[in-house]
Amino acid sequence: MTHEELDALWDFSDPAGSEARFSALAEGPLGPTAKTQAARALGLQGKFEECGRLLAEARAECNDATAECRWQLEAGRRLNSMRRPAEAAPHFQAAWEMAGAEMFYRIDALHMLAIASDSPAARIEWAERGLEAARSATDRRAQAWQGSLWNNLGWELFDLGRLEEAKAAFDAQIEARISFGQGDRLLPARWALARCLRQMGRSEEALAIQQELAVQDPTDAYVAGELAILLVDARSQESAVDGEAGAGDE
C-alpha cells in the first residue's frame, strides 16, 4: 500500500469509521503512518488524550522521513485543535522542512502554517507560499491544495477588511474546487463568497447565493444563519423604501 492509497481511506464526515480503517492497518508496512492517521481521526472526535497516546506510539515506530513528516503534521494538528497554535507551528515548520520533494505533504505543512502562525502577515505569507508551490507542482494531488489555501487566504484578508482581495480569493477557491473535483467543498466555498458579499454591502447577490445553498442542503446551520440576517436586511430595506414613498404622497 502506498501513502496515497492510505490517504484514500479518509472519510472526513465519518472520523470514527476512518479511525477504524486506519487502526486495522497499524501492523502493516505503513503501520506508523496508519497510526498517525488514526490519531488524527481521534482528534477530529475531540479525543485528544487518546490521540496523544497513539501519536507517542507512532513516533517510536517511525522508520523513514515520510512517516516522520506525517507524524509532525498530526502532532501539530492535535495541538492546533486544542487551541495551542504557538506549540503547533514548530511541528508544521519541521514537517515542511522534512517533506523535501514530497510536495503533497510539503504543501499540507504550508497550509497548516497559514492557519497556526502568530500574525496575519505571517499567515498570509505562508498561504501565498503554499499557493505558489501548489500551482507549480506537477502532481495533481499536490495541485489540489489550492482550494484550501485560497480559503485560508480569503479569510485572513476578510478579517483585515481587505474585502475586494478576499472576494477574489473566494472566487479563486470556487474555481479550484470545481477544477479538482472537490464538490463536497463547494457549498462552504460559495457560503464564504456570499458572506464576503454581504460584508461588502452586496446583500442581494449574497441572498441569491444563500437561497441556492439552502435548497442544496436545508439542514446547514451556517446557511440558515446567514439567510436569517439577509432576510431581515431585505425587509428593512423594503420598509425604508415604502416609508420614503409614503412620505412623498399628498
Overview of this protein structure:
It contains 14 helices and no strands. It is mainly alpha-helical. Helix 2 runs antiparallel to helix 3, helix 6 packs antiparallel against helix 7 and helix 13 packs antiparallel against helix 14. The longest helix is centred in the last third of the chain and has 27 residues. The protein is globular. The relative contact order is 0.05. The model has no long low-confidence stretch (mean pLDDT 94).
How would you classify the quaternary structure?
single chain
Strand residue content: under 5%
The rounded distance between the terminal residues' Cα atoms is: 81 Å
The geometry reads as: globular
The residue ranges in which pLDDT falls below 50 over 5 or more consecutive positions are: none
Assign the structural class, choosing from mainly alpha, mainly beta, alpha/beta, alpha+beta, or little secondary structure.
Answer: mainly alpha
From the alpha carbons, calculate the radius of gyration and give it in angstroms. 21 Å
How many β strands by DSSP? Answer: 0
Main beta-sheet annotation:
none
Helix content: over 70%
